[in-house]
Specification:
GO terms for molecular function: hydrolase activity, acting on glycosyl bonds. This protein is mainly alpha-helical. It has helices spanning about 25-35, 40-50, 75-80, 80-85, 105-115, 115-125, 125-145, 155-160, 170, 200-215, 235-255, 260-280, 315-325, 360-375, 380-395, 415-425, and strands at about 20, 60, 155, 235, 280, 285, 290, 295, 360, 400, 410, 430, 435-440. The protein is built from 16 helices and 13 strands. The protein has a 4-stranded antiparallel β-sheet with strand order 3-4-7-8. Strands 9-10-11 form a 3-stranded antiparallel β-sheet. Strands 1-2 form a two-stranded antiparallel ribbon.
Length: about 450
């Protein structure tokens, strides 16, 4: 199915529902492709980075001009990147969206390099992508610290990737939805309405995106209680954790290229401290999102709050608490569910079928499996690895599944599901000389 979704320069998540190139999808897809075609994995990332804006942002969609406009909404004529984004350096030769997605790309680039260092060096792969990845991180760190506390804010739920999470309900409630007649949803032609965001939520997504576009895709950094933030600005633990993991990867890339990586490792440690300071909630036993405009934590337990388990420099007691929360009644790892759900099983907002409000997603479980191995939990990691592989196979490599039954939901033959299953088949746990489990491309910091 990765072959079926290949366009010649990149991989679409799904031919029908998502017929363009998506940012964090391509990063996960490259991680899987590295095992069967390191060249194609490199091309996947290079194609995405060729659409980078002058200000450093990597757009969340790169549009294929051969796809009809009505095949997906919001389409290129909604985003108007080359005109509305001109001041921010949007490319003129390709149409993109104007928002971003989680920065998994440096981690992906390092893992792709490790798969075939000879090919990577011969092609100058890291030398070409490193400046672009560094500019991408600069954009996030310098332009998106909307709360003034050292963390990156997302300005749209689509940026965080977990689009319809209940974690966004509070900040979204301030957004007046776009009129229903002002847009046409293409997603409902490919998925059951009960699985998709409601019309009200979608109207709010459209309003946020249109306002950001009409403001020239300008970011307004500020400090404290939402100063400088628009109607929606959230510090999300998963987005920031993936940035930190990619900072560690950039340090390794720098060393490979003959430069010092010490400063980047130090920055990653500072970001980890900021993540703990601003988003850790001991009572919840996990990280929570922060509503920048409201100046407070959002009291919803989303799976995004478990993703920092991926970080090597996370304090030991916090890592242990995250494992307890993942295995407890709120997420059911190793017990009530087949795969970790996207939201708290005990929350009134939990919905086992509706997009990101409860279903289990393969990329999130891949990240958690990696984090469990990193922090010395080989038993739960091995069980989760088997569950991901079994459920991916039995579901037809679905976009997402019912966390209890594994019933497939969303698109079939989904790109990152296939790619990450491929990665788990190849990336078997190894042990270092001290008998400590480690994972490819990762260390204890």
């Amino acid at each position: 199915m990765l072959e079926d979704n290949w366009t010649g320069t990149s991989t679409v998540p799904s031919r029908n529902l998502y017929p363009h190139q998506w940012s964090w999808d391509s990063a996960f897809i490259a991680i899987g492709l590295r095992h069967v075609s390191p060249l194609r994995a490199q091309t996947e990332l290079e194609t995405l980075l060729n659409a980078q804006w002058g200000d450093g942002r990597v757009p969340h969609i790169v549009f294929n001009p051969s796809v009809p406009l009505d095949a997906y909404f919001p389409s290129p004529d909604f985003w108007r990147s080359s005109t509305a984004g001109r001041a921010a350096g949007a490319p003129r030769t390709v149409q993109t969206s104007g928002i971003v997605q989680p920065p998994v790309h440096a981690l992906a680039a390092w893992l792709v390099h490790e798969a075939d260092p000879g090919l990577s060096r011969a092609r100058g792969f890291l030398a070409r992508v490193y400046p672009r990845l560094a500019a991408w991180h600069r954009y996030l760190l310098h332009r998106r610290d909307l709360g003034g506390g050292g963390l990156v804010s997302v300005v749209h739920p689509w940026e965080q990737g977990m689009d319809n999470s209940p974690c966004w309900d509070l900040p979204l409630s301030r957004v007046a939805p776009a009129p229903a007649r002002s847009f046409r949803r293409a997603d409902l032609a490919h998925g059951a309405p009960g699985d998709r965001p409601t019309d009200l939520d979608y109207g709010r997504y459209v309003r946020l995106a249109a306002d950001y576009r009409d403001g020239g895709y300008r970011d307004r950094p500020g400090g404290g209680h939402g100063a400088g933030a628009g109607a929606f600005a959230v510090e999300d633990p998963a987005f920031n954790a993936l940035l930190i993991a990619s900072e560690h990867a950039l340090a390794r890339i720098a060393r490979e290229l003959g430069a010092a990586g010490t400063a980047r490792h130090a920055r990653a440690r500072r970001l980890t401290a900021a993540l703990v300071r601003r988003l850790w909630d001991p009572a919840a036993g996990m990280f929570l999102c922060r509503d920048v405009r409201g100046g407070r934590l959002i009291r919803e337990r989303g799976v995004c709050g478990l993703v920092p388990l991926l970080l090597p420099a996370l304090p030991r007691e916090i890592a242990a608490a995250l494992v307890r929360t993942a295995c407890g009644p709120h997420f059911g790892l190793g017990g009530a569910v087949r795969l970790v759900p996207s939201h708290d099983l005990l929350s009134p907002a939990f919905d086992r079928h509706r997009y990101w409000r409860g279903p289990a997603w393969f990329n999130v479980n891949w990240l958690l499996e990696r984090g469990l191995r990193l922090h010395g939990r080989p038993g739960p990691a091995a069980a989760l690895r088997r569950a991901v592989l079994d459920t991916a196979d039995s579901s037809g490599f679905a976009e997402y599944v019912d966390p209890y039954t594994g019933e497939p939901r969303g698109a079939a033959g989904f790109g990152w599901t296939a790619a990450l299953a491929l990665d788990l088949l190849h990336d078997r746990p190894a042990r270092d000389g001290n008998g400590v489990q480690r994972t490819e491309g990762g260390d204890r910091g």
